[in-house]
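Researcher: Next sequence.
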Amino acid sequence: MSEYFEKVKVFLVDMGYAISQENAEEELVIVNDEESGIKNLIVDCEDPILILEQMIMKVPGKPGDLFRRLLQMNRTLVHGAFVLDEEGKMVLFRDTLRLENLDQNELEGSIKALGLALAENAEELLSFSKK
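Model: Next structure:
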């Protein structure tokens, strides 16, 4: 287990996030803060980077303008981006940070940016998920 993994876990606990699952071998945890829309956020130490990833929704059968809108939404995000998984079937939020010089403020900023992105775009994302 790397020193980075322990450092990240301490940061998360200090910020008040509930760690719902942990896989020490894979050096990843799953955190929740449902008040801000964060549910099953994967925090994965993949030296030299930390990966933050949360599933947002399935890509609807007829995505229409979804992909264009996701790119437009990305332009307004403070950190991270809305992305598709490898199969193109799921919309995720993803952000990466360098582990070597990671500090708590940087990690907190990325997680709060996810909550803000969800709050600002929830209605539109929900409408796309119903198509």
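Model: The chain is about 35% helix and 35% strand. Strands lie at 18-23, 28-33, 38-46, 49-58, 81-84, 90-98.
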